[in-house]
Structure formats: C-alpha cells, structure tokens
C-alpha cells in the first residue's frame, strides 16, 4: 500500500501538463469562464477534441486497434486528473464514450467502418435518445416506436433531455419495435441521421436560462422518420442489453479532481469577498468550517476513487459499488455550488441571459459572480440525470447489499 | 499507487482474526468486561505471544518493525471484535512516545511492554482543557536533576490496568502555551500518585489521576524539556489513525448485522429490508463506511508527511469517522427497532464504542476547526 507514482508515470504527467499548456488556449479559457452550464460553443468543443485527436489522446478508453490511446490504468487516471485540475473542456461523451463502445461490441463491420473514424476525428457529432416525457427513471417503459416497413423502419415518437442535440449529426435511440409482456424485451437500438425529414429539435430552456442556440437540452420529435434497416445495431428487440452495456461504460469516472478545482475557486472567492470591518469571508469561521467539511468529503471521495482505480489496475472488475461515485460526486458538486452562491451574497441575484455573448457592458458585481447562480441552478440536474441518485441507491441496495 | 495488502499483511490479519474467533465471542467479552479486572490478562499475554505488542517497534528494540498499515490492520480487526484490552493506549500511543525516546529509556521500558508484563497509559487530558492538548496545568518544578510533579489528569483511558503512565506536564510558560510542555514517565506505584478508577460506557476503564509532590529523576523525562508539544501532536495523530481503523472495524460489523437483520425481520408480511426507506438508509450507511475506510487508509498513508499535511490528514479523517460513527451507530440501533435498545444484542455495544471513539482526542467539531485553521 502506497501513494507514490513511478518515474514513467511522472514523465507522462508532465507530458499531459505540457499538452494542456499549449492546447488549452486563453481564448478557450475565457469562453468557458463565461459558460453558465459548463458547455462551450460547438466550435470550441470541436477544436479542442481535434487537438486531442492529433495527439492520439482523444479516446483513452478505446482499444488501440480502433484508435484508442493505449493508456495504462494509471495513465488514464493521471490524464483525467490533470484535465480536470486544469479545468479543460470535457470531451462530448455521446459519440466517444457511449455509442462507440456499443458499436465495437455489437455493431457490424460496416457500421464500425462507417461511424468509428468520424467519432474519433470529431467529424460527426452524436446525441443520445433515451428518455421520453413518460419514461424517466423507468426507461424500459419507453414508447417511441419503430415499425418495420420492409426496406426501412418508420419512427414515430419523441425523446427528451437530449443534450446538445442542436449540434448533432446523428442520434442513437432506444425505440420500441415490439409490444412484449416484459417491456425490456421489445426495445431496439437504432442510429438515426438528424437531417432525416420528420425530425424536429426544440430547445428546452432550463433554470440557468441559457437561450437558444446555447441551450443544453432539447426535445426531439420524430414524425414518420424513415430509417434504413442497416442502421439497426445488433439484433432487433435486444436493444436493452446494449443500453445496459453502454451504462456500464459510463461508470467509473472520477469526480474528485474537478471537485478540488471547485473548492479552490471557492476559496479564492472567499478571499476576495469583503464582509466589512476590513475582513474577508475567509476570516469567517462559520463559512470556513462549511468549506472544510466539504473539502474533507471530497478527499473521502478521492480515496474511494483511488481504491477503485487501484483495484482496476490489479485487473479486478469494479461492480455496482461505483454507484457510490455518482452519488457522492454529484452531491458534493451541488454542495460546492451551493456554498458558492452563499459566498457571493447579493451578487447572486443579477442574471445575464447570453452564455457566450460578448458582454459589452461590464457585469454587475465581480466578474467571477456571473456564472455562479446559473451553475448552481443548472447543477441540480446532476442528481437527476444518468440514473437519479435514488435509482443509484436502489442499485447499491440490490446489487451490493442484496436487499 | 497501490491499495492492496501484501501477503505478510494478510497473514497478520488472519492471525488476529483467529485470535478473536477463539477468545472473543460476545459472551466471553461480556464476562471480561463484567469482571472486576475489566480486561483479560490471559488475552494480553496471548497478544504478546503472537508478537502483536511489538508491531511498531524496531527489531533492535525487540519489535516486528512494522509500519502504520500493519497497526491499522490490527486496530481494524480489534474494532470488529470490540477488544477492550488497551492495545492502542499501550502500543500505539505510549509506544509511539517510547520508540522515539532515548536509547536507555527504550532499553529500560520496551522489553516489559513488548512481553506484556507492563501496560501503559497516556495521561494528557485535564478538566479545564477539553480537547486542547496544550492546555496543561499539571506542573513540574525542577531542583538539580530532579523534578516534582503536581496536578490532576482526567479520564485517562486504560489507566486502571497500567503500571506506567506517560504524563504531559508544564515545565514553563502559560496554561495553554505550546512551548514549555514536557513528557514524563511515571511509575503508577510512586508515592504521591493516586487514582480513582471507573468503568466507561463502552466496557473499557479509565481513571482520574492525581499527582501530589511526585518525585521524578532525570531519566523519566522523554525528549527535551519544554519542547514536547510537536511530539504529542504527532503521537496523537498516530493514535487517531489507529482509532479510525478501530472504528471502521466496528462500523463494518454494524452494517453487516443490520443488513442481515433487515433481511430476516418481518413486519407487514414481508422482510423490512424490502422497504425502500430502509434500503436507502442502509445504502447511506454503506457509503459512509466506504468513505471512512478511504479516509482511514489516507491518514495511515500520510503519517510520515510533514506536520501540517499530517495534522490535516488526521483531522480530516477524524471528522469523517466521527460523522460516520454517529450515523452508522444510530442507524443500526434504529433499524434493529426495540431489539437495538437491548443489552443482549451486540449492536448497542458497537454503538457505544463508536460513540466513545467520537470523543477520543477530539470530536468532529474540534477537528473541523483544527482542519480549517491549518488550511
């Protein structure tokens, strides 16, 4: 048991830091600093991902044969950690970490050839069609249907909470292809071109009030959309299996590096926030103790993550225990956002609608305050999405505790 | 970076597990804590025979030369078994001072500690000082090379069983100055030492200890006169690391017991573990446990860091362990319903031990403040 990295790993870490220094430009930093919901313009995301692609680092989790980075487990951890500490943009996951692993495992050779290279080079932008207005946590009850019309499927229905669908070229969808007693058994996994006639993307404006085209989520409507048969992944009615496989791939990300970054930002704010009498918020023990409590909990999560990472390195499988990461990671993220709102006091109230618009007038209050309340509001989503934290607790209860 | 245990470490764990299996079922423990002695001398001898009393000491001193991870393993397993024998007090805390003491002090005292012939206790707390290790009124006056000790120490854990005490005392400075604190080895049988012994809530024992003109010679001073506060902090942090390990041992038993109970206990025609409100409570207990394990590893791996880093690690871990101990202990009693209130079930005993660990060497509030001030 030890906490040390070997020299190779330290060299790799320096390489990652150097890359970030060059590729994560001031322009990008400025744009992200103004983002209320953590995402930037499509251009920025594509530019960033292309620089990772050129370095060979765009897909740390892919097998090398498909163009993956060939990182060791430790390198993956270092890579992820350094990116988060630097506050670098996240890669958009829908192509790279969601549909791609499913295609590699269940797709035809043609599908792999057609889609994987364009995902790798960020030529094609994907989005995810899972949730529906009537199917949230109970995803298997989904109704969006695909009828077999001989040469093609005819898709009718709607998908909701579709993140960044306004930029997407393709959507992967769970659709109902048959009505069965067990709802899971009639679901198929379909790839749909977003330019197909009959698709309508409508923005959903969320609590942070980022206006279109900077909205984070959308509702996508399908009306008699024709989808070629070759766009079915795997077998008809087996889509639920593939969807679960995808979720497994989603797991195991570490939260603590970006949480530490959040805490450091918050400390900086507390140092800059005057509380009268020549004192600053960082002198207020009441606030500082809350901050400390939060930092201690982040450290606890960090070491849960390190233990999981160490088990992975040793070739062990990580099971449903990792639901703990989603629960604690998102809850702590919300806690930091909440403390940030507390920290800025009155400056939590002004709102600027445009996310990336050039702000010609100076903001009301200090610069750093602009995004804090919107981030707090938008951050409420994290305990709801990707399997709400209540669902995660159900998973742990069943799969770990055997209840 | 690696969180796995070596073969040797696993072997050590197995040794302790079989010791507890053979000597420490619930009824045997009950007999021990209800006896007048309050601990088992036989068990103590067995721990010595197994070499466990020598875990942290160098081979030169007759020990096993193990590090903090091994101590963590011992303490965790003792936590699972609710062992009352004063291992942490003697080996981790007093041993922590002694293994840094002079050659002649080590030669004089360690053989009888490691052989199990002498039990040690650390007398540091005073009624007015709460958790502040520097708030010391116990005073020492010096004449030539000899010292005279006067004053009172409170709730000295394990003192009724101890032959030797290590006492923090003020040789100079004001009541809560960090400067001017010295450590003395005091034979409990010395003239002028009086104790009031009593049982504690968790089945252990402690004493109120008074010193009245206790005469000490120069060989009883550990380290430099007036300069021992940093060492006290260091050993306190090592003790906290061991207490955290003991706590996760106790928590793991409570969590397992609670889940098992909820699978079998039926109400409203079904096992109560089918109710989602109870499931989520148990998941939260599980998550608190996992985080506590993580913080226990963290602090034990950071004991060698420089002072500020180490002290933050210890305080951070203690905050996590205190909060988790409260939540898991209280929840385990709650989920066992009326049975959780009874003395016959082990649940309450683990709850009580965890509650005492919360306070030992400072509670969550104390360490949260300490962490903040170090940041």
Give a summary of the structure in a few sentences:
The complex is a heterodimer of chains A (403) and B (375). By secondary structure, chain A is of the alpha+beta class. Chain A has twelve helices and ten strands.
Describe this entry's structure for a reader.
The complex is a heterodimer of chains A (403) and B (375). A four-stranded mixed beta sheet of chain A has the order 1-4-5-8. Chain A has a four-stranded antiparallel beta sheet with strand order 2-3-7-6, with no helix packed on it. In chain A, strand 9 and strand 10 (279-280) form a beta hairpin. The model of chain A has no long low-confidence stretch (mean pLDDT 93). Chain A folds into three domains: 7-91, Butyryl-Coa Dehydrogenase, subunit A, domain 1; 125-237, Butyryl-CoA Dehydrogenase, subunit A, domain 2 (Beta Barrel); 251-399, Butyryl-CoA Dehydrogenase, subunit A, domain 3, CATH 1.20.140. With 403 residues, chain A is α+β, with helices and mostly antiparallel strands. Chain A contains twelve helices and ten strands. Chain B has 375 residues and is of the alpha+beta class. Chain B contains eleven helices and ten strands. Chain B has helices at residues 7-23, 26-34, 41-49, 68-81, 87-98, 103-114, 229-264, 276-301, 307-335, 346-359, 364-374; strands at residues 120-123, 139-143, 146-157, 164-170, 181-187, 193-199, 205-216, 221-222, 266-267, 270-271. In chain B, the strands form three sheets. Chain B has a four-stranded mixed beta sheet, with helices on one face. In chain B, strands 2-3-7-6 form a four-stranded antiparallel beta sheet, with no helix packed on it. Chain B has a two-stranded antiparallel sheet with strand order 9-10. The mean pLDDT of chain B is 97. Chain A binds chain B through residues 1-5, 74, 285, 288-289, 291-293, 295-297, 299-304, 306-307, 309-311, 313-314, 321, 324, 327-328, 390, 393-394, 396-397, 400-403, and chain B through 1-6, 9, 69, 259, 262-263, 273-274, 276, 279-280, 282-284, 286-287, 290-295, 297-298, 301-302, 316, 319-320, 368-369, 371-372, 375.
